[in-house]
Design the sequence.
């Protein structure tokens, strides 16, 4: 028995809740999903978290220093382009430099004047190609990467490994997410981002292996929608984004450019994850 009645009541409540949840899951046809997939996966994830991933700290420290130097060099370039020194991290001082002194086109109006967020600076640069904007964008990029590097360094444990936490039930899409630190936000499209990934290493005598389902979500979409073009593309082993681009632009697949494929890819994933027309247009620049 339990030493006091309240503990006994708590246990009884928990068992009652367990029975209710099992009934609910069974009615939704999700009990098998829980017992055969989610629970076994949580065991594997806990082992992965405990094992962690080895990190080359020296590489990360060097990258942090290099990124700091880049920030300083680009700050000097910004000062030269503006004709004087200013605080590159101060929106107020940026507004004065960009809109009062350099008389650049106005961005979106906000409470404190005109916005100087990354998107606005990118737009301004595409409109004017002013060197001060080029320097400011490079500063933002280097600073962002440096904070990623510093975040990773701070999470390396005494065993020389990072032990991230995999969140199994957070992302609405059903994918895993990673926190403490987030290992899924390390950029891969830029050279600097790829350099950060080089710091994830395998111990001597072992290798890191990358394995990936080939467009698993789109295959599920083809199966559920029974869309003839999608199904045909997969069953005949075509590149799905190239085939989609061919359908959109009315071309033969061999006529599709890499830019067209990129746009089709954005549309395919936008459809799956419920992206709105406005957001898609913004992403594609159309």
Sequence:
């Amino acid at each position: 028995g339990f030493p006091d009645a309240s503990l006994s009541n708590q246990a009884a409540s928990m068992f009652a809740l367990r029975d209710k949840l099992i009934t609910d899951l069974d009615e939704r046809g999700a009990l098998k999903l829980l017992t055969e997939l989610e629970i076994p996966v949580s065991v594997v994830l806990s082992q992965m978290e405990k094992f962690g991933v080895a990190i080359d700290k020296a590489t990360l420290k060097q990258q942090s220093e290099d990124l700091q130097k880049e920030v300083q060099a680009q700050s000097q370039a910004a000062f030269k382009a503006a004709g004087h020194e200013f605080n590159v991290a101060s929106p107020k001082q940026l507004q004065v430099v960009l809109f009062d002194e350099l008389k650049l086109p106005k961005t979106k109006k906000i409470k404190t004047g005109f916005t100087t967020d990354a998107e606005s600076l990118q737009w301004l640069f595409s409109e004017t190609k002013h060197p001060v904007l080029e320097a400011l964008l490079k500063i933002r990029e280097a600073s962002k990467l440096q904070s990623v590097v510093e975040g990773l360094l701070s999470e390396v444990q005494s065993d020389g490994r990072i032990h991230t936490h995999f969140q199994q039930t957070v992302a609405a899409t059903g994918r895993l997410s990673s926190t403490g630190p987030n290992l899924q936000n390390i950029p891969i499209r830029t050279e600097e981002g790829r350099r950060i990934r080089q710091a994830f290493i395998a111990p001597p005598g072992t290798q890191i292996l990358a394995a990936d389902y080939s467009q698993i979500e789109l295959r599920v979409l083809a199966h559920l929608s029974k869309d003839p073009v999608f199904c045909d593309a997969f069953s005949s082993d075509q590149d799905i984004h190239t085939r989609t681009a061919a359908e959109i632009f009315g071309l033969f697949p061999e006529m599709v450019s890499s830019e067209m494929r990129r746009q089709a890819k954005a549309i395919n994933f936008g459809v799956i994850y419920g992206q709105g027309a406005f957001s898609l247009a913004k992403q594609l620049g159309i």
